[in-house]
């Protein structure tokens, strides 16, 4: 590979620390001087803006980014959105919603399942299709009606990091464009304003690395770890668990915190570690109830929250800086990426080339 690791031990480490820069680069491509967004392939009045429903298909980490964006499309742009794993999408008889537009999300643009979902969708009467992709000239880019590149730069580590946050950045810009098209100018402008603060916020969060390294050393001998989140932090919990599985081979599972009582609570005892993503938002009180349920069963808790978080019992709290709610999912994945990386490092695993996995899976 022509890309060098520089001062870093692994590509994944380099790619995690590169995120303030890769996001800045993504923003630079589409944010204009007058603080409006311009997507060259989605000009004013493009058919995309007339969609009444958005269907996203993707795999792996890209699927998790899509899951986060579903909350944004619906809450901020009032656009119904569904997300499906590409291989499932292609293999079932589905009923296409009225005026639905298909989005594929992919780092490589070569994932066979996603490509085959796109081809399948063309027979189904979608308004059109758009790919959000990191690789110019890839098959997905070539075969899609429209394309937005994520501009995260080449990603080499098999476990995807900077392309995830670049995807989320593009998706949030897309939501801002739809809000603007629907004349919800305030939401649209607010997104842009907050996105501008994102690279510095991530820089600040990366400074928590020493603390996270210490926690990683304590967790590296665990056999199972449970991840919990609510709302748009639920897919962040899934992505955190995926990162850990991929590179440390620790069994990790993610649940929406509200589901705890419907099953996973049975797993909690003094040996179970639970990682909770809990920024200070309207769902915090509910999360605190979940924490109580885990504490009373002696589970070991690590909560990622912000400065104002307090809790009377003895749990581990990792305090992040104050973060605007709009960009909180993009920020809260950073400590989970670091955690997975440092756990795998302390276990001596092959971080950039985990066993059985490939960067781009070109078979179905
Ligand atoms: C593989 C990689 C994952 C990636 C997934 C989807 O499984 O190991 O890191 O998230 O493919 O890849 P894509 O290139 O479509 O985003």
Automatic annotation (TrEMBL):
Keywords attached to this entry: Aminotransferase, Cytoplasm, Glutamine amidotransferase, Repeat, Transferase
GO terms of molecular function: carbohydrate derivative binding; glutamine-fructose-6-phosphate transaminase (isomerizing) activity
Active site: 359 (for fru-6p isomerization activity)
GO biological process: carbohydrate metabolic process; fructose 6-phosphate metabolic process; protein N-linked glycosylation; UDP-N-acetylglucosamine metabolic process
Keyword Protein transport: no
The protein's assembly and partners: Homodimer.
Listed name of the protein: Glutamine--fructose-6-phosphate aminotransferase [isomerizing]
Organism: Buchnera aphidicola
Upper classification of the organism: Bacteria, Pseudomonadati, Pseudomonadota, Gammaproteobacteria, Enterobacterales
Full-length numbering of the shown residues: 243 to 606 of 606
């Amino acid at each position: 590979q022509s890309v060098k690791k520089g001062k870093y031990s692994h590509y994944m480490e380099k790619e995690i620390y590169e995120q303030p820069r890769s996001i800045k680069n993504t923003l630079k491509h589409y944010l204009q001087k007058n603080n409006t967004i311009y997507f060259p392939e989605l000009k004013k009045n493009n058919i995309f803006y007339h969609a009444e429903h958005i269907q996203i298909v993707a795999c792996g980490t890209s699927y998790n980014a899509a899951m986060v964006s579903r909350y944004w499309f619906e809450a901020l742009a009032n656009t119904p959105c569904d997300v499906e794993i590409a291989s499932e999408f292609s293999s079932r008889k589905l009923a296409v919603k009225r005026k639905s537009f298909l989005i594929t999300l992919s780092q490589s643009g070569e994932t066979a399942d996603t490509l085959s979902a796109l081809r399948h969708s063309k027979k189904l009467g979608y308004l059109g299709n758009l790919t959000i992709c990191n690789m110019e000239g890839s098959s997905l880019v070539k075969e899609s009606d429209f394309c937005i590149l994520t501009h995260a730069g080449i990603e080499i580590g098999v476990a995807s990091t900077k392309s995830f946050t670049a995807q989320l950045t593009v998706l949030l810009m897309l939501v801002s464009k739809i809000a603007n098209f629907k004349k919800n100018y305030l939401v649209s402008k607010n997104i842009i304003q907050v996105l501008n603060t994102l690279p510095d916020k991530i820089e600040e969060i990366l400074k928590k690395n020493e603390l996270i390294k210490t926690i990683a050393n304590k967790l590296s001998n665990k056999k199972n770890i449970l991840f919990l989140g609510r709302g748009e932090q639920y897919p962040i919990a899934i992505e955190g668990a995926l990162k850990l599985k991929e590179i440390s081979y620790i069994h990790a599972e993610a649940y929406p915190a509200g589901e705890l009582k419907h099953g996973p609570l049975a797993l909690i005892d003094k040996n179970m570690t639970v990682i909770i993503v809990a920024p200070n938002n309207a769902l915090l009180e509910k999360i605190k109830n979940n924490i109580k349920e885990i504490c009373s069963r002696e589970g070991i808790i690590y909560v990622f929250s912000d400065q104002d978080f307090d809790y009377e019992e003895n749990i581990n709290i990792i305090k992040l800086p104050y973060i605007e709610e709009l960009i909180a999912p993009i920020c809260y994945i950073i400590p989970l990426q670091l955690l997975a990386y440092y756990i795998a490092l302390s276990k001596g695993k092959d971080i950039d080339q985990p066993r059985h996995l490939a960067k781009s899976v070109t078979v179905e």
